[in-house]
């Protein structure tokens, strides 16, 4: 197989684009897709202070690497979740990454703060992924606010987001469907804008980019994510994609082009925000979900 | 496993209803689901003349059997598609069925009319399923109009309709999404109301009902349907259903409860109908799709 651009030997074939690329032109393709995503959804510009949430996985490290390389003002933010060996491994990957590329990250350690995920899991009757999501969202918001960032960027890719869309579509919950936007506006004083610049790229493409560019990342799946429904949704979308390349991209993008507005209207009506009685941050409830969890733990 | 109702030995377990049933109580359950579908979507009542479209498969024969048994005024309508051995077999099943239950069917023979599906397939560049759909819809409308039926009933089940919904959702085409209703209103003078009374029942449940009630049907899949995308969609929904029983039903029903209206509005704006220049029936184009196909064949 030859590169579509230069006819050198191709390293990767992308069926949904009906194209093969050498390393150089795959990188070019990849960066263009990120630029396109940022532009299409007006995510940020060079005047913005961007906080990149990193986990030690391929998506977030690739995102940080790229935004930094493209000249954006970025700071990494890592949450040590306290999930045993998995968290230790991922922290080591983050440290190696920041050292290799001369970058600095803010680190939040849930164990030091007294509420690592396994401890929260014991007192809160929810799937670990749901608990972890609440904790992450809380610290993303808190750190971004306290450090005066303009925007919070996460490494969610096309597989993540099309799977989440499928999950929300199977339940048809308008409130969730109205929160799919890869550029979620800020809310009140505390909650900063959230963006997902990798939404035009698949898991496979991000992994290939990391590999070709010497970005080492944790390949283990989180041990707590076993049985997560998102895995089921990714599985069925992969099976459709394999028979009909381009399915994920079309499903995800067409949603925003022709459908999302139909759900936005009533979410605007419903949203009423409070300041959490415990921490003071914006919340949909009088006490925010995170502070409620901590109360249950005590 | 024991029947939920009478504690006799159960013949079938329905995971999505968390219930097992003996033959008698499965039949009771099944009929209730059909009644519920008819009532919920106001499909028809005992004063309506119902044309039941039958193919020789389980769904349409079960539907006809039940509507007749429930006391509705029904006539079967069978189209011999002229697809070799498959069509011959299905016709024999229909003849055996009508004889066994003392019923009468109108029969349309595409070979005698000069355009069996395989002949149309040679001149029209489309998947056979699409050609067949156009031809069937045309004769359903024509026969219903000429024989003065009030409503046209088809045997589409929950698997068929949730798969169709999934296909339409993956493409997000508002025009298709607005045509999902299991009770489609009549259009103009020629096109009668179309209803799908089996939408609360799965393929497996309909098959079990046929088996338990001595309804013999053709089990072969149509040889032309190989590679039809609907099969892919059914496959992924079955895989989700197996991990999360009830997924299909919730996906399908919740669509009508909370979403369908959001797509109905613009379909009403768009619909402009003509009378086909060739056959005179209502059409979205100046010449209807079926007459266009026949022209291409000549």
TrEMBL record, chains A, B:
<feature type="binding site">
    <location>
        <position position="288"/>
    </location>
    <ligand>
        <name>Zn(2+) 2</name>
    </ligand>
</feature>
<dbReference type="InterPro" id="IPR011063">
    <property type="entry name" value="TilS/TtcA_N"/>
</dbReference>
<feature type="binding site">
    <location>
        <position position="22"/>
    </location>
    <ligand>
        <name>Zn(2+) 1</name>
    </ligand>
</feature>
<feature type="binding site">
    <location>
        <position position="279"/>
    </location>
    <ligand>
        <name>Zn(2+) 2</name>
    </ligand>
</feature>
<dbReference type="GO" id="GO:0002144">
    <property type="term" value="C:cytosolic tRNA wobble base thiouridylase complex"/>
</dbReference>
<dbReference type="InterPro" id="IPR054306">
    <property type="entry name" value="TtuA-like_LIM_N"/>
</dbReference>
<feature type="binding site">
    <location>
        <position position="276"/>
    </location>
    <ligand>
        <name>Zn(2+) 2</name>
    </ligand>
</feature>
<keyword id="KW-0862">Zinc</keyword>
<protein>
    <submittedName>
        <fullName>PP-loop domain protein</fullName>
    </submittedName>
</protein>
<keyword id="KW-0479">Metal-binding</keyword>
<dbReference type="Pfam" id="PF22082">
    <property type="entry name" value="TtuA_LIM_N"/>
</dbReference>
<dbReference type="InterPro" id="IPR035107">
    <property type="entry name" value="tRNA_thiolation_TtcA_Ctu1"/>
</dbReference>
<dbReference type="Pfam" id="PF01171">
    <property type="entry name" value="ATP_bind_3"/>
</dbReference>
<dbReference type="GO" id="GO:0002143">
    <property type="term" value="P:tRNA wobble position uridine thiolation"/>
</dbReference>
<feature type="binding site">
    <location>
        <position position="25"/>
    </location>
    <ligand>
        <name>Zn(2+) 1</name>
    </ligand>
</feature>
<feature type="domain" description="Rhodanese">
    <location>
        <begin position="50"/>
        <end position="95"/>
    </location>
</feature>
<feature type="binding site">
    <location>
        <position position="6"/>
    </location>
    <ligand>
        <name>Zn(2+) 1</name>
    </ligand>
</feature>
<dbReference type="GO" id="GO:0016740">
    <property type="term" value="F:transferase activity"/>
</dbReference>
<dbReference type="GO" id="GO:0046872">
    <property type="term" value="F:metal ion binding"/>
</dbReference>
<feature type="binding site">
    <location>
        <position position="291"/>
    </location>
    <ligand>
        <name>Zn(2+) 2</name>
    </ligand>
</feature>
<keyword id="KW-0808">Transferase</keyword>
<feature type="binding site">
    <location>
        <position position="3"/>
    </location>
    <ligand>
        <name>Zn(2+) 1</name>
    </ligand>
</feature>
<dbReference type="InterPro" id="IPR001763">
    <property type="entry name" value="Rhodanese-like_dom"/>
</dbReference>
<dbReference type="InterPro" id="IPR014729">
    <property type="entry name" value="Rossmann-like_a/b/a_fold"/>
</dbReference>
<dbReference type="GO" id="GO:0000049">
    <property type="term" value="F:tRNA binding"/>
</dbReference>
């Amino acid at each position: 197989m030859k590169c579509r651009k230069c006819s050198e030997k191709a390293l990767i074939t992308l069926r949904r684009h009906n194209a093969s690329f050498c390393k150089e032109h795959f990188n070019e393709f990849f960066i263009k897709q990120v630029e396109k995503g940022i532009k299409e959804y007006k995510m940020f510009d060079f005047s913005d202070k961007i906080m990149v949430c990193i986990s030690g996985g391929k998506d977030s490290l690739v995102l940080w690497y790229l935004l930094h390389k493209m000249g954006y003002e970025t700071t990494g933010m890592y949450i040590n979740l306290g999930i045993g060996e998995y968290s230790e491994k991922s922290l080591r990957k983050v440290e190696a990454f920041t050292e290799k590329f001369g970058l600095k990250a803010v680190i939040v350690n849930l164990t030091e703060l007294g509420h690592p995920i396994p401890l929260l899991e014991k007192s809160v009757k929810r799937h670990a992924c749901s608990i972890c999501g609440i904790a992450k969202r809380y610290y993303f918001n808190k750190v971004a606010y306290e450090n005066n960032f303009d925007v919070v960027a996460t490494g969610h890719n096309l597989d993540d987001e099309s799977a989440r869309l499928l999950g929300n579509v199977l339940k048809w919950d308008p409130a969730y469907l109205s929160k799919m936007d890869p550029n979620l506006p800020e809310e009140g004083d505390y909650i900063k804008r959230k963006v997902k610049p990798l939404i035009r790229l698949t898991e496979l493409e991000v992994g290939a980019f990391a590999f070709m560019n010497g970005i080492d990342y944790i390949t283990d799946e989180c041990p707590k994510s076993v049985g997560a429904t998102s895995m089921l949704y990714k599985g069925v979308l992969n099976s459709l994609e394999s028979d009909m390349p381009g399915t994920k991209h079309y499903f995800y993008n067409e949603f925003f082009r022709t459908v999302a507005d139909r759900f936005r209207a009533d979410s605007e009506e419903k949203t009423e925000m409070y300041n959490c009685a415990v921490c003071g941050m914006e919340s949909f409830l009088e006490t925010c979900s995170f502070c409620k969890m901590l109360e249950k733990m005590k």
